[in-house]
Amino acid sequence: MITGKKLIAASQADLQQVAQKILFEKQEEKIFALFGKMGAGKTTLIKAFCKVLGVGEVVGSPTFSLVNEYTTNKMKSIYYFDFYRIRKLEEVFDIGYEEYFYSGNYCFVEWPELILSLLPPQFVRIDIDVKDNEVREIAFQTVSH
Length: 145
Prior knowledge:
Elements: E1 5-9, H1 15-25, E2 31-35, H2 42-52, E3 67-71, E4 77-82, H3 89-94, H4 97-101, E5 106-110, E6 122-130, E7 136-144
Parallel strand pairs: 2-5, 2-6, 4-5
Antiparallel strand pairs: 1-7, 3-4, 6-7
Helix pairs in contact: 1-2
């Protein structure tokens, strides 16, 4: 469901600007949960977030490891989660998710719907919807649950 403030990305090149705007508007937030169908661009947007935040290394989805850690040019950690392949919540407990989510560092989460009950009480929900001609409509809002 697309609600909240909406931005349009007409191409992949627009995603860095989208990431900058979201980070600027949600400066106080550290947990970002990305919702969207397979191929919607969640991974690409997370790569843009990491670039904007100063990660110099190549960012890739942690499809099999569940979490990857990246370091910014200011020596801050960023955690990138991909929960697509989890079968049970115990797998998330096993990686010590609380240490990451409550670390005060940025956390970007793909497939958060699979672990929604484990997300902190407040986070930024980002919904990516693919429109005609591969245009992405990206809605974002802070939610509490």
